[in-house]
Amino acid sequence: MSGSNDPFDEKDLVSSQGWRAVLLEIEALMLGIAMALGLIALLRELLD
Question: How far is residue 5's CA from residue 12's CA, in Å, rounded to a whole number?
């Protein structure tokens, strides 16, 4: 494991894990926004 390409491989692994984390954050954010919009629509229906 003492090759010159190992650091690049490790960086690729870290970056791919980082992208997974970012995608999970975006997915959670979109879910939160969708739930908030749903609640707003529900409240509008109830208040009207």
Answer: 11
